[in-house]
Amino acid sequence: MLKPNHFRSVTAILLLLLASVSCKTLDRYHKMQEDLDLSIKVYNLEFESKAIDMSARFVHPTYRSEYMAKSPEMVKRITIFEAAVLDIKLFNDGVPLAGLSEKDFNRAIVVIRYQMAILPRTKLQTLLIEQEWLLYQGQWVIIPDLKAFLG
Known about the structure:
single chain; 5-stranded antiparallel β-sheet; 5 strands
């Protein structure tokens, strides 16, 4: 049988190990969240400033050639005046995560509000766009919905 002092020592060690494992899991979650946030920010800044060649690095490889093929039309027709991220929903293998969690996630739906003009119309319009982001080979990539912009 363990003596009271030994029991406290063993308990303290177990608590420290548990806290260490929890912190590593939480750190991994925060790292994934930071990587996603940075990818969303950089992609959208490049897209909004019409630096399509630069923003293409964030496009999923399956959709990149279509993205690049439609880029001249996007650059010519779209002018974005304002953009704001309204919501981010996280998923793990298709299952939505409720709030902040220590679980891994591999997909995100980002809702963005754009104030923009799309030629030939000259009237400013507001569009709500859902961007789909996937964790692909360790990098966050977008599956762009170009139809929403070009109709």
